[in-house]
Amino acid sequence: MIIKSAEYLISSPDWEKCPTPNMPEYAFIGRSNVGKSSLINILANNEKLAKTSGTPGKTVMINHFQVNKEWYLVDLPGYGFAKRSMSQRKQWEKMIEDYLRKRTNLVTIFVLIDSRHSPQKLDIDFVNQLGEWNVPFSLVFTKADKSTQAEVSRNVKAFLAKMRETWEFLPPHFVTSTVKKTGRDAILGYIEELNAQ
Ligand code: GTP
Ligand code: MG
Question: Family assignment (predicted)?
Fold first, then answer.
């Protein structure tokens, strides 16, 4: 897919304040600091589009971007951010659950997982939750440049094996590095395919 335009639209505190759901929508979620905003910038070819940070908890609202005036790309705040208070965590959970279950134009979400680690309970719990909610998703293993290919491959396999314990079908998965721009074409190609359906 060729990116002709990518613009920031709005940051919303809840699903009801999001833009009119008249275009296919793709959202990015995952543990805080896993690289959601960085990946969005790589996809959109604009390093300054979504705000990134070395400090976890940077993204706090539902951020809408519009690509090629045809589809929405959404940056969500991450989970597992230790410095959040219990009430902030509850607020996050409600915002995310409502958004994921009620947003009618949401085609699929991308769940980002740090490729440096073996399967983490937090990520497994989150994808299982998506299953219960019937939210379609795919997996994106990020920061592949930070370890060897063999390590990345081992962690990806271990995560899929863990899922296979309870899932009959596995979702599509991608491996990315925003440093090397790995995985960009595959994800954009996948979105293009879904947009055409
Ligand atoms: P929150 O909004 O806080 O949930 O974080 P996020 O998931 O949006 O992460 P963000 O994109 O802000 O990136 C966090 C840090 O990881 C930044 O310092 C990025 O530069 C770095 N980072 C993200 N992706 C990659 C990658 O593929 N490779 C490397 N080496 N660093 C990355
Ligand atoms: Mg972010």
Answer: Belongs to the TRAFAC class TrmE-Era-EngA-EngB-Septin-like GTPase superfamily. EngB GTPase family.
Residues with CB under 5 A from ligand 2 (ion): 36-37, 58-59
Residue bearing the CA closest to ligand 1, atom 18: 54
Assigned domain for 1 exists: no
Q: Is residue 178 part of a domain?
A: yes
Structural domain that includes position 175: 6-195
* C-alpha separations of 162 from 3, 55, 123, 155 in Å: 35, 29, 11, 10
Residue 34 beta carbon below 6 angstroms from any ligand 1 atom: yes
What is the CATH classification number for the domain harbouring 179?
3.40.50.300
Q: What is the pTM of this model?
A: 0.95
- pLDDT bucket at 87, cuts 50 / 70 / 90: confident
Complex ipTM, two decimals? 0.98
Look at residues 121, 138, 141 and name the one whose alpha carbon lies nearest to residue 79.
Answer: 121
